[in-house]
Amino acid sequence: MAPSGTALLVWGLLSSTSLAAAVPAQPMITSPPTFDRRALERLQNRGLDDAGSYLGSVFSSLGTDVSSFVASGVPQFFNDLPTGTVVESSLGISSTDLDASPTLALNVPPYANWTDQGWNVRIHGNIYKRPNITQEKLDDLANVFLIGVDIADLPQTQQDQARNLTSEIFVVQQDNEQVIVNFVNDVTVNPDTDSGGISAAGGSQNITMPYNTTAEGDFDSFVILKNTTGTDGGHLLPGNETDHVQLLNVYVEGAASTGNATAYLVPDTGITIISDIDDILRITKIYDPKEGLLNSFARPFTPWDNMPEVYANWSKTIQNLHFHYLTTTPEQVTKNYMDFIYKTYPLGSFDTRPLNFSDASATLAIRKFLLDKIFQTFPQRKFILMGDTSNSDVMSDYPGLVSAYPGQVQCIFLRNTSSTDSSDLFPYNTDGFEGIDQSMYMFFNVPDDLKNLDIVNGQCYNASVQENVTFEWQGPFGLGSAASGVEPPSWWRSIGLGASLIMMTAAMWS
């Protein structure tokens, strides 16, 4: 017989060391799993009723809206968002209906590295138009993204946010568009809060991007800055002769709105913090579909605990620190993320998922692609990596960077979401950390665990934080404190996760 949805999920969680030939390195996108009651009965008949009870309680609490995207740190509701002609078709409009609409730009805050040709800036973003959509239609579209609630039942402020985000999703990307960017050295910098960053003294100029936009409206390319003279006679400082991050404003020419960003000219050496956002900087709960949707589409973005205090302290006390925020959410929903970050955390460059990364394998590989790009762009810098255990790509990509780029990873800090959030019932794999010096990484529970660490000199481990890393698949009851009132069955603890999953899979297939 065909396996149940639960069997497929369990099979996908098997360690690659035990079934290397059968299990792909990255989990594939699956349909939402449903708990097969016949499989549960077979488990009970075989004397494994506590296993069935445990799994049943997990999946019934999560509902049927969970996919392998949750385990990968990519919420399913951010997958396969409509673009281009799909938007036109769903709204019943044509491209000619948009002729009078203004052209808009998403200009993602870029970073720049120093080369023998000068400063090399990575300019990336998207060109699009926003259709005129009635509120009634917006409400219908917004309800597609909400579970168990109608937009009309939300508080007014949440209704407004849901409509705004929905209107940002249902835009029409513009292909084959020429993009011209204007660099202006007029950034207002607060040295006390911006890690010693300074406004660039020169560098104002216009640059035409070397390629027109893609079919998805994307533009992404490095461009070389000329060292033009500023209004006060200043110039851009060479990246190998300064410790300061220099800031330039960047505008997309001709864009009616949202076309402005700040470019960060990052010196050859120093420390860059690469930070994920969901469930490390903000409360998202991607592992809880209903809450994740409300937290992303309707509720105001809320910082996780006192994490802003930790980042602010690093920004104030570590000179010339560069922050880079990396999220794998698609471009259409990036604006809310950027607005939240720049109101709550230190200024920094940004990365998101381009629209041409839309199929299964590309979506699950985008974080590694973006991490490789920044590591290769700054081969002499040290990196501090921030994330959480609910992202399987983080759990594999971060430790992989230690061997891929020797000497560049300074610290890895991972929030153990299951130790402080009882709704996170998904296991995570720590085998990538085997062989890495404990002094380089820490699985922490609360932001205060990060305080008083000398990260500049490589102190990345707080010995008072209980970790219990087993270098294998671990449940929410594995690292730190138990995550929920759902107790793991006794056989799970006694024979280990891998063997337990094999037993359950075999029972469900028979």
What's a concise summary of this model?
The chain has 510 residues and is an alpha/beta fold. It has helices at 5-12, 37-45, 49-62, 68-71, 84-91, 135-144, 156-169, 289-297, 307-317, 334-344, 360-377, 392-404, 417-420, 490-495, 497-509, and strands at residues 104-108, 111-115, 118-129, 172-173, 180-184, 198-199, 205-208, 218-224, 246-252, 260-265, 271-275, 322-330, 349-353, 382-388, 409-415, 428-429, 441-444, 473-474.
How would you characterize this protein structure?
This protein has 510 residues and is of the alpha/beta class. Among the domains are: 106-124 and 177-268, Sandwich (Immunoglobulin-like), CATH 2.60.40; 269-486, Rossmann fold (3-Layer(aba) Sandwich). It contains 15 helices and 18 strands. It has helices at 5-12, 37-45, 49-62, 68-71, 84-91, 135-144, 156-169, 289-297, 307-317, 334-344, 360-377, 392-404, 417-420, 490-495, 497-509, and strands at residues 104-108, 111-115, 118-129, 172-173, 180-184, 198-199, 205-208, 218-224, 246-252, 260-265, 271-275, 322-330, 349-353, 382-388, 409-415, 428-429, 441-444, 473-474. The strands form 3 sheets. Strands 1, 2, 3, 4, 5, 6, 7, 8, 9 and 10 form a 10-stranded mixed sheet that branches.
Distance from first to last alpha carbon? 7 Å
Runs with pLDDT <50, length 5+? 1-76, 478-510
Number of DSSP strands?
18
Shape: globular
CATH architecture of the domain at 269-486: 3-Layer(aba) Sandwich
Helix/strand structural class? alpha/beta
Please summarize the sheet with the most strands.
Answer: 10 strands, mixed
Average pLDDT for all residues: 79
What level of helicity do the residues show?
25-40%
Radius of gyration: 24 Å
* CATH topology descriptor of the domain at 269-486: Rossmann fold
- CATH class category name of the domain at 269-486: Alpha Beta
Strand content: 15-25%
Count of alpha and pi helical runs = 15
Keywords: Signal
GO molecular function: phosphatidate phosphatase activity
Pfam family, one: APP1_cat
InterPro entries: APP1_cat, Mg2+_PAP
